[in-house]
TrEMBL record:
It comes from the Bacteria. This is WxcM-like protein. Gene3D superfamilies: Jelly Rolls. It holds the Pfam family FdtA. Residues 5-131 form the Sugar 3,4-ketoisomerase QdtA cupin domain. InterPro entries: QdtA_cupin_dom (IPR008894), RmlC-like_jellyroll (IPR014710), RmlC_Cupin_sf (IPR011051).
Length: 133
């Protein structure tokens, strides 16, 4: 059976000053964080991603605004809306993913289990299908 990406809610520390939310590697999320990147200023109507990975696991959080993640592991497809900073999507390497419907103020934070390696990307959907069926 394929590993399934999953949505998690994490707790926030709120008080009269506002909110603070924390993510710890190998604790809040099931991997050590090796890389962090963020996607922002996304133009209207843009869809990006269009790949799966061989080994990289990721955690996605919309720190501000919202966006939707299309997931496809060939057994099932899902559309996950990220619209609050306490919602985390744990994205398995075997999920083809596309991100769309970004609000103008969306800041999408991505925590990754591996350093950037172009060789870890599967960008051809036909190849993805052949590897996973
Ligand atoms: P790209 O893979 O096109 O983004 P997406 O999957 O969201 O469509 O990445 C955009 C550019 O950034 C591309 O030139 C590769 C580069 N990049 C890095 O150099 N390091 C990274 O960790 C990532 C995620 C991208």
């Amino acid at each position: 059976l394929k590993a399934r990406s999953k949505l998690m809610m994490i707790s926030e520390h709120g008080d009269e000053r506002g909110y603070l939310t924390v993510i710890e590697g190998n604790k809040t999320i099931p991997f050590e964080i090796k890389r962090v990147f963020y996607i922002y200023g996304t133009k209207e109507g843009i869809r990006r991603g269009f790949h799966a990975h061989y080994k990289t696991k990721q955690a996605l959080i919309a720190l501000s605004g919202s966006c939707t993640i299309h997931l496809d592991n060939l057994e099932r497809k899902d559309e996950i809306k990220l619209d609050c900073p306490t919602k985390i999507l744990i994205l398995e390497p075997n999920d083809w993913h596309e991100m769309y419907d970004f609000s103008v103020d969306c800041v999408l934070l991505v925590l990754a289990s591996h350093l950037y390696d172009a060789e870890d990307y599967i960008r051809d959907y036909e190849l993805f299908k052949s590897l996973h069926t």
